[in-house]
Amino acid sequence: MITRRLLPLTAAATLGLLATACPKKATGPMPLCTAEVASGTAIESEAQELPPDLWFSILLNNFDREKMRPEDEPRDCTGRSAIQPTIPPLADPGPGTEAEAEAEGTVAGCPINNDLETGRLPVRPLTAEDIVINEGPDGSSLVWVQAAHFEDGQAIGPVAMVEWTQGGIAVRALGNLRTYTEKARMRIETAGGQRLLVAESDNCTFDEKMCQRIMKLLPIINDRFTTVPLKRVEDEYHPGGDCLGEATFAMFDQHTSDLPDGWIREFEIVRSVSFDGEYPLVAEQVVVRDKDPNQPDAPPQDFREAANDRQLVYKDRYFETRGSVWDEMIENYGSVAHDASADADDE
């Protein structure tokens, strides 16, 4: 993955920036936003490098470049909120239906996290640390501006797929991304004809000694990076298609249970996500071990192992999937005696 350098722009180009306008015809579909530089074929456009303050000005409406501050309630270059989740449009919305759903923070009957107040930090000047730029498909760039920050290490702000033109840039896809900022990386994947923004970053509040790698998937719908929920496949035990949160996955997780006999049960899961099939595939491997707290130096005893592969099938505004073996293992064995002899159920 290549992260582009951010270099100073020439004075002529800086003064000639026209942000969030569409002053010229573009080849192909009309871009969501454009920004041009006055010097015609700008050196910076050829090198595909812009300094952070110009990226902020392009992707954030009314960004104060002198103070390097976004608005308290920032908006993207199209005038939409830059911090509310971007939800996919309804295929056939009735009058007011989509607006009502967005106002209620629900998609396909599931809540989408739009709590922007809990743990939100005060607005501050942005720096070069508040932008992530990665290589996109066909010579494009993926740009994430972190407009608002949270106590847990997450940030939210506009994410764009940018095409470099002869005299500037054209925004070809746009949305909002909320995830952790540490070691954040983005790429575009395609599975079954559906394009996805794949964002990975580290949750370093997970453990004192290690960070937890997090993957978030945003389907590209109508040139928008959209936040969608996961829903469980309906079956006899889950007839309503339970909501499972957003399409976000921890690549590693741990859980500890205190057993009735005083032993400690440790659950660990490792996940991987592949995109080379008809649908994204989440592979999960769970290991369960027991420890005797009275013998801290003794190695843990293996208790159970399980593995599960589950597809993520994109439906109308959500991903449908099977339940995770992780939840089943914790539910089924979180309080079972450490010397139980039943074999684990592999799925």
Q: What's this entry about, in short?
A:
With 347 residues, the protein is mainly β.
Please explain how this structure is put together.
It is a single chain. With 347 residues, this protein is mainly beta. The chain has helices at residues 11-15, 43-47, 52-59, 97-104, 325-333, and strands spanning 18-21, 33-36, 106-107, 110-111, 131-135, 141-145, 148-149, 154-164, 168-180, 182-191, 194-203, 212-221, 224-225, 229-232, 243-246, 248-250, 252-258, 264-274, 281-291, 301-311, 313-314, 319-321. The chain has two domains: 11-181, no CATH class; 243-333, no CATH class. Helix content is 10%, strand content 39%. The radius of gyration is 23 Å and the shape is globular.
Give the CA-based shape. Answer: globular
The overall pLDDT average reads 85
Class per helix and strand makeup: mainly beta
Quick one: biggest sheet? 12 strands, mixed
Radius of gyration: 23 Å
Distance between the termini: 34 Å
> What count of structural domains?
2
Beta-strand content bin: 35-45%
The stretches of 5 or more residues where confidence is low (pLDDT under 50) are 1-26, 342-347
Tally of strands: 22
What share of residues is helical? 10-25%
| Sequence of secondary-structure elements | HEEHHHEEEEEEEEEEEEEEEEEEEEH
The count of helical stretches stands at: 5
